[in-house]
Design brief:
alpha+beta; about 325 residues; seven-stranded antiparallel sheet; 13 strands; four-stranded mixed sheet; globular; single chain
């Protein structure tokens, strides 16, 4: 019946006039559905090509237009990220027997050059990703990394919003969304039973020599890095990042006026944390906010409070700093 109704509206098909019999309308309806199916397939193929083109534009946009020097510079900046977060501790051209070795590939694109914002000049941006599916221990490691679900996120948001007293002009519920830059490079150190090596790209050979990792170098042999972090591409990367984030959130401590402080505790839901206000003796007073984590994004919502001093937030330091890339803040 639906096909017949749609078919009756198509004045270009001679089979779809009102004078036609029921059988004729049914045949015309079937032809209409077949024609629409062919059209959808053609549209789908065209959409698929457009999607692939857009993905190629996203990850390879203008990369080929960069000079060789600019491409090498982009890949070298990524090497500096690896050294900044101590992702490896050894470069060697000799491997032990039966070593667990991964190769990798670059994902390249361009980005606005932050040092030349006036001309909107672009520079190369690269990420080297090991092929984790070749990991000999991929089935032996825990890889679970909780992220907040939609229901839990909405529940936390609604709960904090319910604490707002609209008759009190000094009472504010503020929210913020934060993306942690280079999150997976800030995971906890790997704790494998088998050392993991990665074949270094040739663009990193010279930086490795300059940084003192390669004392002697044979151009005919590859260079391998002994990894200390589960970098992006390895199977346990998301979990090691979550463990570090969990550790850092639980070590949060912010003094507030009146001798108390704010701390963060886990809730019964994974990836949902509660910002608790406690008195000077450490006794719970109230829930002042929520923090929901989704991979490297944090969604926070909290009521207003008065810190004891500015910039007095203290967190654990054994795993290094977490760098905030961007934050949108509503309210104060």
């Amino acid at each position: 019946a639906g096909a017949e109704a749609e078919a009756a509206s198509d004045s270009h098909d001679p089979h779809l006039t009102p004078e036609r019999t029921h059988e004729g309308a049914a045949e015309a309806g079937a032809a209409f559905v077949a024609r629409k199916t062919r059209t959808r397939k053609a549209d789908g193929d065209e959409y698929g090509r457009a999607l692939l083109l857009s993905l190629d534009q996203k990850y390879n946009n203008d990369w080929e237009n960069l000079s060789k020097e600019e491409q090498t510079a982009g890949r070298r900046r990524h090497f500096e990220l690896w050294t900044k977060y101590d992702c490896f501790d050894l470069a060697t051209q000799q491997l032990p027997a039966g070593a667990n070795v991964l190769d990798g590939t670059f994902v390249d694109k361009t980005e606005p050059d932050p040092t030349d914002a006036k001309t909107k000049r672009k520079r190369g941006k690269s990420r080297f990703c090991p092929r984790g599916f070749k990991d000999k221990q991929k089935n032996e490691l825990r890889t679970d990394a909780p992220t907040v679900g939609l229901t839990a996120l909405l529940t936390a948001e609604a709960y904090m919003q319910s604490l707002w007293e609209d008759d009190d002009p000094d009472d504010i519920v503020a929210s913020a969304i934060v993306d942690v830059s280079a999150a997976f490079y800030q995971g906890l150190r790997t704790c494998r039973s088998m050392t993991l090596y990665m074949r270094a790209p040739w663009e990193w050979v010279q930086p490795l020599k300059e940084a003192g990792y390669l004392k002697e170098y044979d151009a005919k042999r590859p260079v391998y890095l002994r990894l200390t972090k589960e970098v992006p591409g390895t199977v346990a990367g998301p979990r090691m990042w979550f463990l570090n984030l969990d550790d850092r959130l639980l070590s949060f401590h912010l003094p507030v006026k009146g001798g108390g402080h704010l701390s963060i505790s886990r809730s019964h839901k994974p990836a949902v944390y509660l910002v608790c206000e406690r008195d000077a003796e450490g006794n719970f007073k109230r829930t002042a906010g929520t923090v929901c984590t989704h991979v490297d994004d944090l969604r926070m919502r909290a009521t207003s409070f008065a810190p004891a001093t500015s910039n007095e937030t203290r967190t654990g330091s054994r795993t290094g700093p977490l760098h905030q890339a961007s934050a949108g803040v509503e309210g104060q």
